[in-house]
């Protein structure tokens, strides 16, 4: 597969259209990827309702610019995604997220169509290494071409979300927790994503890394200026470069590790042809990684010789534990809906109703943290966790 990654600097979203035209021209022009009369699914990241400046979703300026290029090529752009695990895939939910995240405005400005088809189909995938059938939303299956408009963000479970993980949005809303329940380990989850990427093949990927998200993403982190757009045909190649930009140790990137085991390339930076800049010019040295990993190595590899045999016994203490802030919780139920193992319930205290996590059932997938729009899910470190990182 084509392992070239193209990069164009973009200091702010006011210059998004100009810079994205430059990026696509560098890649050969939009006419190389779409044909007149085709329906083009713009697969955005619409995790939850969040304002554009929060960096939760693909920025609407990016979506609008790409949609206009698609229209100019004579094709029909369709803005598509299924929101995160805590939300039902319904017209009402989509309408709210489209409005809040700026997709409604992007559609109006560009002439794109917003998807409100909430049906899905079960698709057989006998070639899948781990998953042999997927539930996939219908508009993705009906589209002639998929353009992957992903967002660069940190991720408390998979360390980073970029071009490969953005494909998870083709799974309908509340079907997503089932995958977390079955695939509790990051390596198995990464293998599922690689299978999904193979069956839902995007023709090109464009990564919005103008303002990324650092810290405990993909929802509860902080916006971080990175100032670039990345583009390419191979989602893995974009993720390799993105990981280098944010300083994510390769050992802590389960998608690249599992890709290497499968013989999929690229999975190393030296297998990527970077066009438009040198990787040394792009790195952001102070980018904050999620607290669920250690900078410099994966968590398990960070343990010393005497700590490693104890890991199975103290696994519960060697992970961040999600806790509910009663003061911030508004009892919206998004965390409960997102939890793949039904570890969260709503309880009434003397003053208010709030969410409560059953620690014995919790599998540390952090879907609750990912879905909470009110910062009410707090990730706490145990004393043993802090000691193991020394």
What can you tell me about this protein's structure?
The chain is an alpha/beta fold and 390 residues long. The protein folds into 2 domains: 4-282, 3-Layer(aba) Sandwich (Rossmann fold); 303-388, Alpha-Beta Plaits (2-Layer Sandwich). The chain is built from 14 helices and 15 strands. It has helices at residues 16-26, 60-72, 91-101, 103-110, 138-142, 176-182, 186-199, 235-246, 254-262, 279-282, 299-302, 334-338, 367-371, 383-388, and strands spanning 4-9, 39-43, 76-80, 113-114, 120-124, 133-137, 145-155, 159-161, 204-214, 222-232, 273-275, 321-324, 344-348, 353-357, 377-380. A hairpin with a 3-residue loop joins strand 7 and strand 8 (159-161). Helix 1 crosses helix 2, helix 2 packs parallel to helix 4 and helix 7 crosses helix 9. It is globular, with a radius of gyration of 20 Å.
Which helices and strands appear, and what pairs or packs with what?
Layout: E1 4-9, H1 16-26, E2 39-43, H2 60-72, E3 76-80, H3 91-101, H4 103-110, E4 113-114, E5 120-124, E6 133-137, H5 138-142, E7 145-155, E8 159-161, H6 176-182, H7 186-199, E9 204-214, E10 222-232, H8 235-246, H9 254-262, E11 273-275, H10 279-282, H11 299-302, E12 321-324, H12 334-338, E13 344-348, E14 353-357, H13 367-371, E15 377-380, H14 383-388
Parallel strand pairs: 1-11, 2-3, 2-7, 3-4, 7-9
Antiparallel strand pairs: 1-10, 5-6, 7-8, 9-10, 12-15, 13-14
């Amino acid at each position: 597969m084509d392992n070239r990654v193209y990069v164009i600097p973009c200091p702010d979203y006011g210059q998004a259209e100009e810079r994205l035209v430059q990026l696509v021209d560098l890649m050969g022009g939009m006419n190389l990827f779409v044909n007149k009369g085709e329906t083009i699914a713009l697969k955005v990241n619409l995790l939850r309702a969040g304002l554009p400046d929060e960096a939760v979703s693909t920025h609407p300026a990016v979506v609008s610019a790409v949609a206009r290029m698609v229209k100019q090529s004579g094709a029909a752009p369709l803005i598509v995604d299924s929101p995160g695990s805590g939300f039902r895939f319904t017209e009402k939910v989509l309408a709210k997220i489209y409005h809040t995240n700026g997709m409604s405005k992007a559609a109006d400005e560009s002439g794109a169509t917003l998807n409100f088809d909430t049906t899905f189909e079960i698709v057989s995938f006998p070639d899948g290494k781990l998953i042999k059938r997927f539930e996939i939303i219908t508009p993705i299956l009906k589209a002639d071409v998929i353009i992957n408009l992903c967002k660069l963000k940190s991720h408390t479970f998979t360390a980073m979300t970029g071009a490969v993980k953005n494909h998870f949005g083709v799974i309908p809303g509340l079907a997503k927790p089932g995958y977390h329940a079955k695939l509790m380990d990051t390596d198995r989850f990464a293998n599922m994503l690689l299978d999904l990427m193979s069956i839902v093949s995007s023709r090109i990927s464009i990564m919005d890394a103008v303002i990324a998200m650092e810290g405990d993403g993909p929802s509860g982190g902080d916006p971080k200026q990175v100032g670039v757009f990345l583009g390419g045909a191979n989602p893995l190649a974009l993720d390799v470069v993105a990981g280098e930009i944010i300083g994510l140790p390769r050992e802590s990137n389960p998608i690249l590790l599992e890709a290497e085991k499968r013989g999929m390339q690229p999975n190393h930076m030296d297998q990527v042809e970077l066009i438009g800049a040198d990787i040394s010019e792009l790195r952001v040295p102070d980018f904050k990684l999620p607290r669920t990993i250690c900078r410099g190595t994966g968590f398990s590899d960070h343990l010393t010789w005497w700590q490693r045999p104890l890991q199975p016994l103290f696994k519960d203490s060697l992970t961040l534990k999600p806790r509910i802030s009663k003061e911030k919780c508004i009892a919206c139920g998004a965390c409960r809906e997102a939890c793949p193992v039904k570890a969260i319930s709503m309880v009434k205290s003397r003053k208010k109703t709030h969410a409560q996590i059953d620690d014995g059932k919790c599998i540390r997938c952090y879907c609750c943290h990912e879905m909470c729009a009110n910062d009410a899910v707090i990730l706490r470190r145990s004393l043993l966790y802090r000691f193991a990182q020394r």
